[in-house]
Design a protein that fits this description.
single chain, alpha+beta, Adenine-n6-DNA-methyltransferase TaqI, Chain A, domain 2, 2 domains, four-stranded antiparallel beta sheet, 14 helices, elongated
Length: about 450
């Protein structure tokens, strides 16, 4: 491995360059204020704490992991470790801190930059290797201290460590800024689509079309049960479900926004049960809507349309079906069912216990709708589809850009620890000499400690 490293670099174990899980402070005043850091305060993307508390040392002396200013913290339990929870302890009250027992603490020895170690731990390659060495039981898997001690790190000269850390902070700040800008795009696209639907169903989207064609606005105030046929799903017994077959049952998980997800955990029923429940068979242009989810979260009420059906789809309980009459186009109604106005009415009748929310049939059938003419409905559908297609293109470009930006951090870190991020300086003290000094100081410290014990 040394042959692959730049000139002046060497390899070392983490145990050689840092004291692993140092002992708790002793003989200190119990009233001494110290910084308390709960696990949620340790970021998955940033080396600084997200928030902290101040507590007296006596309150946290036992039952917590202790650390000091400049220590590197690394989450050892799943899934915190895989998600990259780590930090460098800074700004601690009286230089002391404590937090979750699910943290490993690495205290850099003289001549090692804390953030150099932090960035090494933050590599996905390191975290994957750590995960492959987990110990414990399912749900309580942890990175053992033996792995941390024995893990090897490419060690740069001290001055180069500083240059690498400075360069990483500049580059990763730019990456993080790009990620934050990208995070706004899905929110903006969601608002755009809702604005399109609101304009479409209020008549604003086609106002110019009516003016151009000299059409007088025609909006008929009605309710859904007057223009559609509603049916609630059948309570199929899960014991009758098959993993494969000809007759698929449409359950809540199959109902997405605007499109059925037939490949999402599909289940099927036998021929005899399908024949007995033909009333719940779905036809082309039927609209289905999910009617159960998490209470107060509004994570249901999604509406989908059956584009093509040969009569092989059947409606399960807690999914409603709307079949349009001759006054409303299925696609127009589909868009209307996803407007904020309808969803406000839909969820106003939500019932259920603490965890599960339900909306009954009247939460759909009694919904009031202003219905334009069929000709205008057709124009509305055409315009909405065109605008949604534009939004889909932007979303595809966003997804591609996000994938590329998300890979940048790990790419930059890989370059850093291969010695490719900053130029080497032949005047820097070689890392091998730095490592030798650390070992020498550790040996001297050990001798002193032994002498004190004898006295």
């Amino acid at each position: 491995m040394n042959d692959e490293l730049p000139q002046g670099w060497t390899t070392a174990t983490l145990d050689e360059i840092a004291e692993i899980n140092p002992r708790h402070p002793v003989n200190l005043d119990a009233a001494l204020p110290v910084t308390f850091v709960p696990m949620p305060a340790v970021s998955e993307t940033n080396w600084v704490f997200q928030f902290t508390e101040v507590r007296p040392l006596g309150e946290v002396r036992k039952g917590y992991t202790h650390f000091a200013e400049g220590d590197v913290l690394f989450a050892k339990i799943t899934p915190c470790m895989e998600n990259g929870k780590a930090a460098v302890a800074t700004g601690l009250k009286n230089g002391l801190g404590c937090g979750s027992t699910e943290l490993h603490v690495l205290r850099p020895r003289g001549g090692i930059e804390s953030k150099f170690i932090y960035q090494f731990l933050h590599q996905e390659s390191f975290r994957r290797e750590a995960a492959s060495n987990f110990t414990g039981t399912a749900g309580q898997l942890r990175v053992p201290v033996s792995f941390i001690r024995e893990a090897e790190i490419p060690l740069a000269p001290l001055n180069e460590q500083r240059r690498i850390v400075a360069k990483l902070e500049k580059l990763l700040d730019k990456v993080n800024a790009s990620q934050k800008r990208l995070e706004r795009i899905p929110i903006l696209l969601k608002r755009f689509r809702q604005s399109v639907l609101a304009a479409a169903c209020s008549g604003l989207l086609t106002a110019d079309w009516r003016e151009k064609n000299d059409i007088v606005p025609e909006f008929n105030q009605t309710i859904l049960e007057a223009i559609t046929d509603y049916v609630g799903g059948f309570a199929y017994k899960s014991s009758t479900f098959l993993k494969a077959g000809k007759h698929q049952v449409i359950r809540i998980g199959n109902v997405g926004h605007f499109l059925l997800k037939l490949d999402s955990s599909p289940v099927f029923i036998p021929d005899d049960i399908a024949k007995q429940t033909e009333r719940f068979k779905l036809l082309s242009n039927d609209i289905v809507i999910s009617m159960t989810g998490t209470k107060y979260k509004r994570d249901y009420g999604a509406a989908s349309i059956v584009l093509d059906s040969d009569g092989s789809l059947f409606l399960n309980q807690r999914v409603g079906r709307l079949r349009c009459g001759d006054k409303v186009l299925a696609k127009f109604l589909l868009y209307w069912l996803q407007t904020d106005n309808f969803r406000e009415f839909f969820f106003s009748s939500e019932t259920g216990n603490v965890n599960q929310g339900n909306v009954g049939a009247d939460g759909i059938r009694k919904a009031s709708i202003e219905l334009p003419s069929l000709t205008e409905q057709q124009e509305i559908v055409r315009r909405v589809e065109a605008l949604f297609a534009l939004a889909d293109k932007i979303e595809a470009r966003y997804t591609k850009a996000k994938s590329q930006v998300d890979k940048l951090t790990q790419s930059v870190l890989a370059k850093a620890f291969h010695g490719e991020l900053v130029p080497q300086d032949p005047n820097d003290e070689p890392a091998s000499e730095l490592l030798q000094k650390i070992k020498s100081n550790c040996d001297k410290s050990t001798v002193k400690q032994r002498s004190k014990k004898r006295l």
